[in-house]
Structure formats: structure tokens, C-alpha cells
Amino acid sequence: MSQPPLPMAPLLPLADGHSIPQLGYGLYKVPPADAARLSLDAIALGYRHLDTAAFYGNEREVGEAMRAAPVPREELFVTSKVWKDDNGYDETLRAFDDSMARLGLESLDLYLIHWPVPSTDRYVETWRALVSLQQEGRVRSIGVANFHPHHLERIVGETGVAPVVNQVELHPWLPQSQLRAFDAAHGIRTEAWSPLARGRVLGTPLLDDLAAKHDRTPAQIVLRWHVQLGNVVIPKASSAARIRENLDVFGFALDAADLAAIATLETGERTGRDPDDD
């Protein structure tokens, strides 16, 4: 790939003393056959944050890309997640071993509980396993995904350890204002999956207008909105051109009127499940 890299995303501090690149490449629904190539494209363009999971089926290819990349391992940040079928203490430890074998890495930067699954009531045990993995030095940072405040309160109350990241569905239709405020008050970084509502929010005329105002694409407007909210954001893309476009959001800013206009798009609509319904 001949295009020069873009400016890298800023590093945001985490409560455990580590840091996370604010914008990463999300690999949900990236086929394994494409994952290594697209991950390498992302790294070549300036990404340093790759987000995968056991459920995505592409951990092996992400690991291959990291080993092939002309970038020192310590400059790359990789996240994986324990799938909900493996919630539980011993099950999570085994799942972590399996993920690390597929990734082919000696250590992981961030490991998340993928879903709390309150119907099985095993997410506290799962969290205890993540705490153990961190204490053993096998993962630097630990967090959760799709946790409501009451899930967070429970794991902190029962273990005394707070996650440093909560990765949740978050986009202009579902800005998660109360959850973001809760996370911030407890030293938890909010990370947005489905940051473009699976692309569906991009048909909004308001975003077209803002894109024209800033000479950007609607996707760049939404990703810049995430950045200015302070979210970590992990857009998925299936081409090098789109991967590049998604990272190119640090050279402009939305003004107060833009942010107020985007706030009017809130509907509460989800593209995925409510974590309490699982």
C-alpha cells in the first residue's frame, strides 16, 4: 500500500496506569480470510489498536498481522474478549488460554467480558478470573463490554476491582449519556462499538449537511463526534480506503452548534440486544 500513514490516534490514559489508542480498527464481522490483510492495512495507515474477540473467529489472523507488521509489539494494542458461552471462573481461564494460542502472543493488552448474561448469573465469577489473569501478568488491562451501571456496581462491590473499559453500543441514536457519566465517575473509559449504528445512521440528512459544512463524509462527522465526547471508538471497515477515511478525523473539529444538532438524533434505538435481555 503506497499511501502515507495518517497521524495516529491520541493515547487516552486508563485508570490502571496504562493507555489506549482512542481510535482503533474493529474486526467484528471481518472474515478470517480478510482479517490479516486488513489489519496490516490498518497498521500501515497509522492504526495501533486492533479489537477482536473469540466470537469473531479472526484472532489467529489478527495475531499473524501483528507479527508481520513492521511495528514493534509494544506499539500495538490488541483487545480480545471472552464469549458469553465461556462465562464462569474456570471456563474463562481456559477461554483466555485458547485466545492466546490463536493470537500467538505472550501477553494481551486488554481482555473484556463480552456480555454479562445476567440470566446465567456468572459474570462476577468471570470478572474474578480476569482479575486473576491481570494479577498474574498475563493481561495488562481488564474490562467489560455491554455492562449497564448495575452490572458494574455488582462486580466492583463483590471484588473491589473496577474495569478500566466498558465497551458498549453507542452512536448518535444511542449516545448512552447516563452510562458515560457513570463510567466517567468511576474511572472507566467508555468504548463505542457499532459507532455508526452499522452504517444505518449515515442516511440522516443532518449528517449530510454537517459533512458538507466540514468537507468530510458523514462517517467522519460521526466518528469525530465520538472523539469529542471522549469515547474510545472502533469502527469496522472492509477496504483500505474506508479504513483510512475512518482514521482521518483528527484534523477538524465540530463546533458547539454541530454537537447540539447531533444530540437531536437520539432515539434510544439499538442495533443489537439490550444486555439485560440475555
Summarize this structure briefly:
With 278 residues, the protein is α/β, with parallel strands linked by helices.
Amino- and carboxy-terminal Cα gap = 42 Å
State the CATH topology: TIM Barrel
Query: Count the strands?
Result: 10
Mean pLDDT across residues: 97
Overall 3D shape? globular
Uncertain runs are none
Structure commentary:
This protein is an alpha/beta fold and 278 residues long. It has one domain (11-200, 226-237): TIM Barrel, CATH 3.20.20.100. It has 10 helices and 10 strands. The protein has helices spanning 32-45, 59-68, 89-103, 123-135, 149-159, 177-185, 205-214, 218-229, 240-247, 256-263; strands at 11-13, 19-21, 25-26, 49-51, 77-82, 108-113, 139-145, 165-169, 189-193, 232-233. It has an 8-stranded parallel β-sheet with strand order 3-4-5-6-7-8-9-10. A two-stranded antiparallel sheet has the order 1-2. Strand 4, helix 2 and strand 5 form a beta-alpha-beta unit. Helix 1 runs parallel beside helix 2 (59-68), helix 2 crosses helix 3 and helix 4 crosses helix 5 (149-159). The mean pLDDT is 97.
